[in-house]
Design a protein that fits this description.
- This protein is an alpha+beta fold.
- It has four domains: 225 residues, no CATH class; 51 residues, Ribbon (Laminin), CATH 2.10.25; 109 residues, 2-Layer Sandwich (Phosphorylase Kinase, domain 1); 245 residues, Transferase(Phosphotransferase), domain 1 (Orthogonal Bundle).
- It is 29% helix and 20% strand.
- The chain contains 18 helices and 34 strands.
- A hairpin with a 5-residue loop joins β30 and β31.
- α9 packs antiparallel against α11, α11 runs antiparallel to α14 and α14 packs antiparallel against α15.
- The longest helix has 40 residues.
Length: 748
């Protein structure tokens, strides 16, 4: 075989070959704990800290050929150092699997002087190749460019160019191209030359980077810091991984010449990954040195039974593997890797399995039946608890069963996809509203109310459902049915598809404003619906939560009053009821807030606030409004100061609307008077709004000759709005402050 030729290392930088630094590098890089080398009998197994397995050796007949000679030399300090053949390349580690050598290579250094401004460094490994997967070409500097190539430059050339200043931020631990650069190179390279140069003689970076550095190093052996720019001389050498292989032939070629074939008993041949030569590895189930035939050092059988394996029964080791067998009380022959044993009494096990299956099926059926009965009983208890029997009897007596349907829980789960989150239309203080699709494709709104609990609440709920089921008003959201077999009763309403009035008048939610004509019509429709609840229903209903968010609009912008969760039924022989104060901030009647006495005028106040919202385009409560957070108080103060036109919504303010805007403003002021007795009834409010719409449709009623009592009544006594309203409101506005102070002092 050809002998290994090693070119001498030529380095033109100062101070790189120091015996003391070389010793430090070897102590840091070499592995302290290495398994005992597998060598030929009578041959040295190590040189210092480096184990030397065959085919490598330190003396004649101890290595396979001259390329694998390890020159173990003792330094002046008495420490042995291993060199590759007769070169000056220190060997740090030798590995059989994988087939690698770790050697130590110099750092190329360039510090500019007047004679030259570049340096170069060469290394040659003969027939061995440099690992392109485990090494990286590294360049460090800020006025530096370097490249690496093979010796004659015919196969490859690559490199890095670096430029930075003292203002550059360097990232320690990362060789990302700022002060430090790393690059890869092709495989099967046996030699290389490094050329290192400077751009501007390091003049601009001399204070923190007087030199440039370039070297080949094992990946992970160099960790860049900004201090390396100033002085990398403390690291004069780095480890480099070399791939080695036997011979220059492939496995097929080598097997034809048995006298020189390196793979011994219980081993197999593998072609080198670099494409030069072949390697030997022990076959599966064997461990040792595949290049030796010595029974103590070559590929020996491993005892799989002595370590974790796939045997769940008895394990039997043999050459190259192991087998498993069944215990004496099992039936069947031996088997491999834990399969093949059979239970001795198959019929018994089968019978037990069938019996267990029957028992399991029976128990499951009984449990399922018990669960179903318990569920039916629970639904029946909820149905009775929520007044289902009373409601059915009431509907049967009054003949309203065709108007309001009693749904089952399963029906409502089906139409809402089991109350899926995607079906939620909104959440409020009284519950959550879901969208459902009935089997006939009719959309509905299903409200999971928070009603439930005591007998009084159940009674109120029954009365509310009974009354609402009788209401058939075009401007009230129609109740289609309810579900009483859940812990929380469910109400089913008609679906209104155009959102709330609030979302249409709030400029932050809807940039397309409603016209004044539409706003006035919505106000009139809402007033007429509330008036109907107060005076036309069989039992008067006080809504108690009139607000723009509870006024829904259909596709034609027709008003639909909704959310009767807080409503109260008022017996015909009573004018007002005492309740716990409930409502929405900004719409709440101040008189009701103080006394707890609820009457129809409480709804009038809340509707008055809605009128003010329609006039101004502002929300009832707005904490970002510096003038007045409460819209009703702000409106009253502006009217008192004759600033009506300043607070009206500019989107509806028009010369032709001026008279109507003024009339509605005075009506709103009357509705939000502090003293409830001074407020009009909802019937009067509805008639006055209808009168304003009629005047707009029939201009002839505006003539000077219109003096009939009907027209005067239709306009709702407008003179009262112009004359006494301002003074009355002013007095009421001041009175509420005194009244609150008086009642607090009185201990109410």
């Amino acid at each position: 075989m050809p002998t290994l030729k090693i070119l001498h290392i030529s380095v033109t930088v100062m101070g790189l070959n120091s015996a003391l630094l070389l010793k430090l590098v070897l102590l840091v890089v070499c592995t302290a704990a290495v398994s005992a080398a597998q060598t030929k009998a009578g041959c040295s197994s190590s040189c210092g800290n480096v184990s030397i397995p065959y085919p490598f050796g330190t003396s004649k007949s101890c290595y396979i050929d001259q390329r694998f000679f390890i020159n173990c030399t003792t330094t002046s300090s008495g420490e042995p150092i291993a060199y590759l053949t007769r070169s000056s390349i220190p060997v740090l580690n030798i590995s059989l699997d994988p087939a690698e050598l770790t050697v130590s290579a110099d750092v190329s250094r360039n510090c500019y002087d007047s004679k030259r401004n570049d340096s170069w460094y060469s290394m040659w490994f003969g027939k061995f190749t440099i690992s392109n997967t485990k090494n990286r070409f590294t360049v460090v500097g800020c006025d530096t460019y370097a490249h690496i190539r093979d010796l004659d430059g015919s196969r490859f050339q690559t490199g890095c160019s670096l430029s930075c200043s003292n203002k550059t931020t360097f990232e320690n631990g990362s060789c990302s191209g700022v002060g430090c650069c790393q690059t890869s190179f092709p495989k099967a390279i046996r030699n290389y030359t490094i050329t290192l140069r400077t751009y501007d003689k390091y003049e601009d970076v001399w204070d923190f980077n007087p030199c440039g550095y370039a070297f080949l190093a094992q990946e992970g052996s160099f960790n860049f810091t900004s201090q390396d720019l100033l002085n990398l001389s403390n690291r004069t050498r780095f480890p480099v991984v070399i791939d080695w292989a036997v011979d220059n032939r492939t496995c097929d070629e080598a097997k034809n010449t048995l006298s020189s074939y390196a793979c011994k008993q219980n081993s197999k041949c593998q072609d080198s990954v670099s494409g030069n030569g072949y390697l030997c590895v022990c076959e599966d189930g064997f461990k040792g040195n595949p290049y030796l035939s010595d029974p103590d050092s070559g590929c020996k059988d491993t005892n799989e039974c002595a370590r974790q394996n796939n045997c769940s029964m008895r394990c039997h080791n043999h050459n190259g593997g192991y087998t498993c067998s069944c215990p004496l009380w099992y039936r069947g022959d031996g088997y491999v890797n834990g399969s093949g044993c059979k239970f001795p009494v198959l019929e018994i096990s089968l019978g037990i399995s069938i019996a267990l299956l029957v028992v399991f099926t029976l128990v499951s059926t009984l449990c399922w039946g018990h669960k179903q009965r318990a569920l039916i009983q629970l639904r029946r208890r909820y149905f009775e608890q929520n007044g289902g029997n009373m409601l059915q009897q009431l509907h049967h007596q009054q003949g309203y069963t065709d108007r309001t349907k009693i749904f089952t829980e399963e029906e409502l789960k089906n139409v809402t996809n089991n109350f899926d989150e995607s079906r939620i239309l909104g959440r409020g203080g009284q519950g959550t509203v879901y969208k459902g699709i009935l089997p006939d494709s009719t959309p509905v709104a299903i409200k999971k109310s928070k009603i439930g609990g005591g007998p009084e609440q159940i009674k109120d709920f029954i009365n509310e459902v009974a009354v609402l089921s009788q209401i058939n008003h075009r401007n009230v959201v129609k109740l289609l049915g309810c579900c009483l077999e859940t812990e929380i009763p469910l109400l089913v309403y008609e679906f209104v598809d155009n959102g709330t009035l609030l979302s249409h008048i709030d400029p932050l939610k809807n940039e397309h404003s409603l016209s004044w004509e539409t706003r006035l019509r919505i106000a009139a429709e809402t007033a007429e619906a509330i008036s109907y609840l107060h005076s036309a229903a069989s039992i008067p209903i006080i809504h108690r939560d009139i607000k723009s968010a509870n006024i829904l609009l259909d596709h034609d912008y027709r008003a639909k009053v909704s959310d009767f969760g807080a409503s109260r039924l008022v017996p015909l022989d009573e004018i007002q009821v005492t309740t716990m104060v409930q409502g929405t901030l900004g719409y709440l009647d101040p008189e009701y807030l103080l006394t707890g006495l609820l009457n129809e005028k409480s709804d009038v106040y809340s509707f008055g606030v809605v009128l003010v919202e329609l006039l101004t385009g502002n929300k009832a409560v707005e904490f970002s409004r510096p003038e007045q957070r409460n819209l009703a108080m702000y409106f009253m103060a502006s009217m008192k100061e004759d600033k009506l036109w300043e607070i009206l919504d500019k989107r509806v303010l028009d010369q032709k609307n001026a008279e109507q805007l003024k009339e509605v403003a005075f009506l709103a002021r009357r509705c939000i008077r502090v003293n409830g007795e001074e407020r009009p009834t909802m019937k009067e409010v509805a008639m006055e709004l209808e009168g304003l719409i009629a005047m707009e449709k029939h201009p002839w009623v505006k003539g000077k000759d219109m003096v009939s009592e009907e027209c005067e009544y239709l306009l709702g006594h407008i003179a009262d709005g112009y004359g006494n309203a301002s003074a009355s409101n002013s007095t009421s506005y001041d009175t509420i402050q005194k009244q609150i102070a008086f009642e607090i002092a009185d201990g109410r």
